[in-house]
Amino acid sequence: MSPIGPAARLHIDWTRCDGRGLCAELLPEALTRDDWGYPLAAPGRVRSGADKSNVPVTGAELAAAMDAVKLCPLLALRITRP
Amino acid sequence: MWAFGRVSGLVSMVLLTASVLLGILARSGRPLLVIPRFSVTLLHRNISLLAVVFLVLHVAPLLLDSYARVNVVDVVVPFLGSYKPFWQGLGTVALDLVAAVVLTGVFRHRLGPRTFRTVHWLSYAMWPLALAHSVGNGTDGTSAPVVAAAVVLCVAVLAAAAWRMSAGFLETAAVRRSGGNARKGWGRP
Q1: Residue range A8-80 in CATH 3.30.70.20
Q2: Spatial separation of the C-alpha atoms in residues B113 and B41, rounded to whole Å
Q3: Interatomic CA distance for residues A32 and B50, integer angstroms
Q4: Main location per UniProt (chain B) (predicted)?
Q5: Could you state, in order of their start, the residue ranges of all structural domains in chain A?
Q6: Which alpha helices (DSSP H) does chain A contain, by range?
Q7: B29 — contact with chain A (CB < 8 Å)?
């Protein structure tokens, strides 16, 4: 994460998500997967106490995050600005 | 025109089959050997669009061909054709279904996942109609190589459909069925 903070946040809509894993492939440094396949913010990515559904992404990751939004089979992702 | 329309029809049938197979694979959430999941999804989309290109190259030359006697109405409304209207009509229905599936695919983000998925299911009706049209209507439809190819495509899609309905279809099936007792070794970093 750059010192000035994240370029954007990737919002995960858990009611839509089915854990197909495309987003975690596209953003290997921002997301991991739990045992059921659902995406999780990588360790240390979300400040403790902050909303885990809004994962900060860096400027370098923004293009991949947009690809993930476009390709998510369940349309469960959205980019929100910080 | 006539020969061209025949060949492009056969090519689009193969591409439609590849698209159905890749769609089922994408739905499983599994990568394809070294091809990651998002690439499988992109392959599914791009091969589908290539199939549409060949469908245009299949229909348009036959519209222009005086021997085929296909008119614009036959492209949209089934079973009105002058040559083998039933088998041609199956192709028309399949073409209408492809149009619905492609349009809802292109506007997926505006329509929402439920509409997209409901219409996308029509692909499973489209494929057997297209295959029946290929064999029943094609000039070469009952020739040995085409029938052999049709059998191969059929076996492939039936196998994929059986896999689709099997309990272990999803990549995460084993873990999700165990009801919380995570199987060791899956998805752990």
Answers
A1: yes
A2: 16
A3: 34
A4: membrane
A5: 8-80
A6: 22-26, 62-71
A7: yes
φ/ψ of residue A20, rounded to 5: -80, -20
Residue A66 contacts B where some CB pair is shorter than 8 Å: no
Facing residue for B189 by CB, picked from A32, A37, A70: A32
> Which of B27, B112, B188 is opposite residue A75, by nearest beta carbon?
B112
Residue B142: partners with Cβ closer than 8 Å, 6 or more residues away: B135
Residue B7 φ/ψ, nearest 5 degrees: -65, -45
What confidence tens digit (pLDDT) does each residue in B129-174 have?
Answer: 999 999 988 877 778 888 899 999 999 999 999 989 988 888 888 8
Alpha carbon distance B117, B21 (integer Å): 16
Residue ranges of the domains in chain B? 2-177
Report whether B68 contacts B62 (CB < 8 A): yes
What does the block give as tokens for A31? 């997301």
pLDDT digits (tens, 9 = 90+) for B40-92: 999 999 999 999 999 999 998 888 877 777 888 888 888 887 788 899 899 99
Chain A: residue whose CA lies nearest to B173: A36
**How many Å apart are CA A33 and CA A14, to the nearest integer?**
13
CA distance B139 to B165: 35
Residue B36 CA from chain centroid, whole number: 21
Q: Would you tell me which residues 6-65 of chain A have a C-beta closer than 8 angstroms to some C-beta of chain B?
A: 16, 19-22, 25-26, 32-37
β-pairing, A54-57 with A77-80? unpaired
Would the pTM count as exceeding 0.90? no
